[in-house]
Amino acid sequence: MGMPSQRPHRILYLDTAPSAGGSVVSLYELVRSLDRTRYEPIVVTYASHAYIDRFRSLGIEVISCDLYGRGDHRPGWVKQVRDSPTMRLLQRFPRGADLLHLLGFVLLLIRVVWPRTRLLRNIIRQHAVDLVHTNIRIGHDREGILAAWLAGIPCVAHIRDFEKLNCFDRWLVGRTSALVYISKAIQNAHLASGVAVERGIVVYNGVDDAAFAASSGASEQRGKLGIGAEDLVAGVIGRLERWKGQEVFLRAMKLVTAALPRARGVIIGDPVPYDLDYQGWLVALREELGLVSQVIFAPFQIDVSATMAALDVLVLPSISPEPFGRVLIEGMAAGRPIVATEGGATPEIVRPGIDGVLVQPDDPQALADAIVQILQDPQAGKRMGSRGRERVCDDFGLPRHVARIQAIYSAILNKQRIGQPACDVR
Fold first, then answer.
1. pLDDT at residue 50, rounded to an integer
2. Which of 104, 296, 371, 387 has the most other CB atoms within 10 Å of its CB?
3. Domains, the chain, with CATH or none
């Protein structure tokens, strides 16, 4: 009799995102492209979002905890403790605010992080997980790192957002087997927090450029969104979150439509659970600016390639530095010219004057000028889109991304060193 074949290594992916966005889409693209003869994915989600069914359609087991639906991401007891007479008195003393913050953090660990850690540790044991892969950042995924450590298995922490690490989080970094940074900007933020350079590696997000090139649903998607065939369309795609700059885009569109009456704006995305009022505020601002017939709001669109194809220019108006901006490489893969605010990882992706135009954050006039510049010169926009697509094919292809992540898994599971050259981004 021959030796029994070894089962694929079981990877638990922890999706703690509050809604579908770049981190969830990136995770989906990774797991759907894994070599299933080597790796078997299991996905744990904290929020109920559109991608759960997409994960399951791949034959992947999804454990949906729906913690945001229960509201324990921002427990009422936090506000009660903070506003109590004792805590208010404490803040009057020197370093009282520091002590209050420390007490709040300890309570967070006891009341939220530890119960979730136990939940995840049980899932790890029940499913015989070999490796945990967290998907946002250290401070957002503490329980995943702790659960893997307590279960005695390795953990890869994907760092997709800026963060300042406290002492506990720096200790957690030491419990990981590898950190994967989505950009050099994110890596630099961790280095500034005292993380050793050898702890992590930059692996850019990947996009299925072939799927975007093959998209033929632009006309249908325009009709679905209420966009006319002759309209000149600038679109923002992303979660409705204040730092994403949808307000700045609205103010810019007031100027754009004054210069180009055929111009239309589209804002696509869902609100986040912790700021549900922002969408209503944006809708009210649209009315205040007199843009009800010029700017369209639409929920998250599952067919990203068709949505990109429906736009004439993709706009990323973030007022805070972008950790990566997955929507940028999606737009470039679809051949769309880009207008984006400069900062964070955006200059690592968009080459000014080649793939698009970069402007300073929170400047409606500069944003409007850049949008008008591209909409008035469609041939220049097409050239930018073509060069952007070439850039994506060369540097942000999905196979390249998956190969590097799988190389990291292989090195960890075989107890080899993570690093050059096998896991390098180039």
1. 85
2. 371
3. 9-206+397-413 (3.40.50.2000), 209-395 (3.40.50.2000)
